[in-house]
Design goal:
By secondary structure, the protein is mainly alpha-helical. It is about 80% helix and about 0% strand.
């Protein structure tokens, strides 16, 4: 645990090589003591670190491993976080169909978990997947709904990678839809409440 905590601290300070060494040591020690649940913290740390390094393939693999561990534990909140992180990594890899599968698995957990922050993350990732699936209007609607509800509930977006992805995606959507259609879809999203937004996500993710 100490090595994993040190690794996460080093990552937060931008010392990525030191973080890698600490987390790999933590993972080795976990395996020496039987693995299983002991692997969760170092695997999670290595997954987040891979994202910070821009190593999308490694992040995708690490989050998939973390997801398997969380499924074995069966804890709803932690499982939902793992599913959303795995979906985010899959999106970065361009694996939209796999990302949507993760989101479908996460959606039923929302009622049990009851986290508005995770709910907004779910909506935002759904928006990204829809845009990649050529459903730009619905993607804009969900993005507008999420940002509006974040502001209303004091849940600002602090992750700059999410902010950057938002700006890139909305620029793409505006180009695809044209100004008038983009603004109409945005206004529709702003008017949605939380339950209506989740209902739209359920409809959008339906196979």
């Amino acid at each position: 645990v100490a090595h994993a905590n040190s690794g996460n601290i080093e990552r937060s300070l931008g010392h990525l090589d030191a973080a890698q060494a600490q987390l790999e040591t933590a993972l080795r020690i976990a395996d020496e003591h039987g693995g299983g649940a002991l692997r969760v913290q170092p695997v999670h740390g290595l997954a987040v670190l891979a994202l910070a390094r821009g190593a999308a393939v490694e992040a995708d693999q690490r989050f998939a491993e973390l997801l398997d561990l969380r499924r074995q534990q069966g804890h709803g909140y932690n499982l939902m976080i793992a599913l959303l992180n795995a979906a985010s990594a899959a999106v970065e890899m361009g694996h939209t169909a796999r990302a949507m599968q993760y989101l479908r698995e996460a959606l039923p957990l929302q009622d049990r978990v009851g986290s508005r922050l995770l709910s907004q993350y779910l909506v935002e990732l759904s928006s990204v997947c829809l845009l990649h699936g050529n459903e730009a209007a619905r993607a804009v609607c969900l993005c507008a709904a999420s940002l509006t509800q974040r502001a209303q509930t004091n849940l600002p977006v602090s992750d700059q990678s999410i902010v950057g992805r938002f700006h890139r995606n909305m620029k793409i959507a505006r180009e695809r839809l044209g100004e008038d259609s983009f603004e109409a879809a945005w206004a529709e999203g702003v008017a949605l409440d939380h339950e209506a937004t989740l209902a739209l996500v359920r409809e959008s993710l339906r196979e």
